[in-house]
Design a protein that fits this description.
Distance between the termini: 122 Å
CATH topology of the domain at 77-201: Mannose-Binding Protein A, Chain A
Order of helices and strands: HHEHEHEEEEHHE
Shape: globular
Number of strands: 7
CATH class of the domain at 77-201: Alpha Beta
Number of helices: 6
Helix content: 25-40%
Length: 205
Amino acid sequence: MVIAAILMNAMLKDYEEKRSQPDNLVEPVAVDPYASPEEETESAQPEAPAAPDEFAEPGEASPAPEESAAPTPVEHGYQVFKEDVSWTQAQRKCADLGGHLVVINDEEELQEVIRLAEEAGISRVWIGCHRVNGEEIWETGEGIYRWAPGEPTYVDTNDRVAEDYVMLWDHNGWAYNDNRDDPCADYPEFYSGTMGYICEFEAAG
């Protein structure tokens, strides 16, 4: 009985000691006794890896993006086309390119247009002038006239079709002739292969 009482007493004492300990113990963390509080805080937080810059050299900042170059200003000029088209088609094609049918403002420009036509092998050139309600209208509101003898006729003497579109042509010398919109369609044997037009492009302001 004495031995049983001693064993029982030892078991009760061990039980009481276990109850007095906290049940939320965690694994001990090794602490450097020589580290400052700031170093302990930094070491507790893992550093996020820096994002690599694959375009910059080590130790150099990434270059600033280059500014886009300013658009090149459009200069005044001409473009010659040798093509059997109507005046309306020629006007539309020049407009699509950002210009207009050539407007002849003075004698110097007239000679330049003649030179361009001759170099291209064209003897009939649509220019930027047509008639509206009996009045000649230039594409830019101005121009000079160099009518051939007997011109303008306003209508075709053969079939009385209105001739409201102006052509610069070489017929015993370069001069203006009013014509129908598409003479090549009605007189291909006379016009085909000789026609063209000149687009004019104004200088940007």
